[in-house]
Design a protein that fits this description.
The complex is a heterodimer of chains A (325) and B (321).
Chain A: H1 3-20, H2 25-30, H3 37-47, H4 53-65, H5 79-114, H6 119-132, H7 136-150, H8 173-179, H9 183-220, H10 223-230, H11 235-272, H12 278-287, H13 291-319
Helix pairs in contact in A: 1-13, 5-6, 5-9, 5-11, 6-9, 7-9, 7-11, 8-9, 9-11, 10-11, 11-12, 11-13, 12-13
Chain B: E1 4-15, E2 18-30, E3 35-39, H1 46-54, E4 61-64, E5 67-70, E6 73-74, H2 80-86, E7 91-94, H3 98-101, H4 108-118, H5 127-137, H6 143-146, H7 156-168, E8 174-178, H8 186-203, E9 206-211, H9 214-220, E10 223-228, E11 231-237, H10 238-243, H11 248-255, H12 295-299
Parallel strand pairs in B: 3-9, 3-10, 7-8, 8-9
Antiparallel strand pairs in B: 1-2, 1-4, 1-5, 5-6, 10-11
Helix pairs in contact in B: 4-5, 4-7, 5-7, 7-8
Classes of the chains: A mainly alpha (325), B alpha/beta (321).
């Protein structure tokens, strides 16, 4: 039921903020060439930008409630179809970044907890504070500078080299190139993914490592860990089966909550790496004052974040038997 | 040969204010098929010394002993891997808080099965059957359904029964029960104690019963050790201990039992508190609270003689010698 205020809040916020920015779509398209004032007025009237703001907002809300997100003022394609075309690229990147953060962050947190008070622990926690406060745009540029420009190991931008054409069957480049049986395309796709994944995954990685460490430290002091040791189980089994399983409950919450921040980070990452996803698309829509795209895109991302949080709540009950029915 | 033999056991913890000796020079022998009661106040080192025997003292604790032997195996020199083969199989332990001693994420039957699988106690296909059998043995009604329950779906008494089932799953020869009834209702306490004693008789296990309840000791134990501030101060057969306590601390503890103070105006107490890390006396640790203490007691630490750690043990009439 919270969906209604969230919906109004998100659309109102994106609507207000973009209208606070000087200029409208028509001026943005005209650019420096200039336009006759009568023509400008006529066009504004045609698109309804001469209406009072509250009327424009209410009209937009009514339109959205009817399931119509409108048409991009730039491409004349519907917002919905553009979103569907671009979204897989964002999911692919976000998925890789989360996977990277989980697969590295959680084991690091576990080891830090097991070796609490050692130089490894202090070093890792220091690094994670640095990682969590890393500005994405700076970090992205540094990675490009070192690995793309310096060593020449990875490409600078895009999803796949222009040399290859991959049939966009699912929209997920990794899946599409896998089925295309083109080894070069696969390799190119992977090498294009590496830097954006690391850049986008760094902040969540640092957060997961710290969260896992503190959750593990708490769980390792619990009575049932002593019981597990008293059974004569190996240290590995006590750590993974008994401790980590319990420590994951708060960590999963953090993973879920980080999805919102991740999509925000994706906007920056996609812009740096010219990654053709929704983040890139939304940034461009701001520059072009493409109101329907900006508002529709923001709304769709908000809905996805809500959906993910709902999914996390459900996963939480799977992990934690105490809140199960 | 004794089942469990401990000589001069010490457990130290590194604290911010230096090292603290939680257990200091404890000797203990448990024979097969015997019930040994270990009594003492909270913080007297009863649990810690038994955890040390089980190898469950982790960082920052440090365990030292002259002898620490289980059934002929030297526990001080065995590898952790070999020790894990004994712990949970031949020597098992149950704890004070049943509600927090079981892992909340797994069904209780699974947790019992894990103990069976870890020590290959029964063939794989018999594990589930054995779990049900064990739950039945510890008196859990409808065991096949209960096996699928999570700890939070059961009462404290039921969970302690599960803990007992887990501990006896591999038919241990020594069972250490660390205040198994402290967290339970009085009626449940009685049931759990009866269950433990029954199982001990059936299997001929050695049972170490850690408690601060003298009544529990009187009912169940054949022999009693009394601990104070990390040291063992007296050991005797149960009858002897209750009738003719030799250590002034034991005598004072018994005097403080409400059932022994009938007709008196006030319940006798022991003045003062157990010494902590900062105020350990130079001589006998009990001397500041002892009504028979002499100058020698304050200056010189007594060594155990004939089962009593005292310069002036009490005679049959309760007077210092």
């Amino acid at each position: 039921m919270l969906i209604v205020p969230t919906f109004i809040g998100v659309t109102l916020l994106s609507f207000t903020l973009i209208h606070l920015v000087p200029g409208d779509p028509i001026e943005a398209r005209v650019g420096e060439r200039g336009i006759a004032p009568e023509r400008l007025a006529a066009l504004r009237h045609e698109f309804g930008y001469d209406q009072p703001l509250w009327k424009q907002f209410v009209d937009y809300e009514v339109q959205v409630v009817h399931g119509d997100l409108g048409v991009s003022l730039v491409t004349r394609q519907t917002v919905w179809s553009e979103f569907l075309t671009l979204f897989p690229a964002t999911i692919e990147l976000a998925f890789c970044a989360i996977g990277f953060a989980v697969l590295i962050g959680i084991p690091l947190g576990v080891v830090a907890a097991l070796r609490r008070g050692t130089p490894f622990d202090y070093g890792l926690m220091g690094a994670s504070v640095t990682g969590a406060s890393m500005p994405i745009f700076w970090w992205g540029l540094m990675m490009i500078l070192v690995f793309s420009v310096g060593f020449g190991w990875t490409p600078v931008s895009g999803r796949v080299s222009d040399m290859y054409f991959v049939e966009p069957w699912s929209g997920f480049m990794l899946i599409d190139c896998w089925f295309s049986d083109d080894e070069g395309a696969c390799r190119s796709t992977l090498s294009h993914l590496i830097l954006p994944t690391i850049v986008l995954g760094t902040i969540p990685l640092a957060n997961f490592a710290r969260m896992t460490r503190s959750a593990m430290l708490e769980v390792l002091g619990e009575d049932y860990i002593r019981t597990a040791r008293a059974k004569g189980l190996s240290g590995m089994r006590v750590t993974v089966v008994h401790a980590l399983r319990n420590a994951l409950i708060p960590v999963v919450t953090v993973i879920g909550l980080s999805v919102g921040g991740l999509l925000g980070g994706a906007i920056l990452t996609e812009t740096i790496f010219a990654w053709p996803g929704v983040g890139h698309w939304i940034i461009e829509s701001i520059q072009r004052r493409d109101y329907p795209v900006l508002q529709g895109g923001t709304l769709l991302i908000a809905i996805i974040v809500i959906g993910v949080n709902l999914g996390v709540d459900m996963l939480y009950s799977v992990l934690n038997p105490r809140i199960r029915r | 040969m004794a089942l469990l033999e401990i000589r001069n056991l010490a457990v130290e913890f590194a604290t911010a204010r230096g090292r603290f000796r939680a257990v200091d020079g404890v000797d203990m022998t448990v024979e097969a098929g015997e019930v040994l009661g270990v009594v003492g106040e909270s913080g007297s080192g009863k649990s810690v010394s038994m955890l040390a025997a089980m190898g469950l003292i982790g960082w920052p604790g440090k365990v030292t002993a002259d002898v620490l032997r289980f059934d002929g195996t030297d526990l001080l020199s065995v590898s952790p891997r070999q020790r894990r083969k004994l712990v949970g199989k031949d020597m098992a332990m149950i704890f004070q808080e049943p509600m927090t001693s079981l892992n909340p994420c797994y069904p209780v039957g699974w947790q019992i099965a894990e103990a069976l699988r870890a020590h290959h106690a029964v063939p794989k296909e018999r594990v589930q059957h054995r779990v049900i059998e064990l739950l039945e043995q510890v008196g859990i009604p409808d065991p096949s359904r209960r096996a699928g329950n999570f700890p939070h779906q059961m009462s404290g008494g039921m969970n302690q029964r599960v803990m007992i089932a887990m501990a006896i799953a591999c038919k241990p020869r020594l069972l250490i029960a660390d205040e198994p009834t402290t967290a339970l209702d009085v009626t449940i306490q009685k049931q759990i104690l009866d269950l433990l004693v029954d199982l001990q008789r059936q299997h001929g296990m050695g049972l170490v019963l850690i408690t601060h309840d003298m009544g529990v000791v009187a009912e169940t134990a054949g022999r009693v050790q009394v601990m104070y501030a990390g040291q063992m101060v007296e050991q005797q057969a149960t009858d002897g201990l209750f009738n003719t306590p030799r250590h002034p601390y034991t005598a004072a503890l018994l005097d403080a039992l409400p059932e022994r103070a009938i007709g008196r105006h006030r319940l006798p107490t022991i003045p003062g508190t157990v010494p902590g890390i900062d105020d350990r006396p130079a001589g006998c640790l009990f001397s500041p609270r002892c009504k028979f203490a002499t100058a020698r007691c304050a200056a010189e630490a007594p060594v155990p003689q004939a089962g009593v750690r005292c310069h002036t043990p009490l005679d049959d009439a309760g007077a210092p010698r």
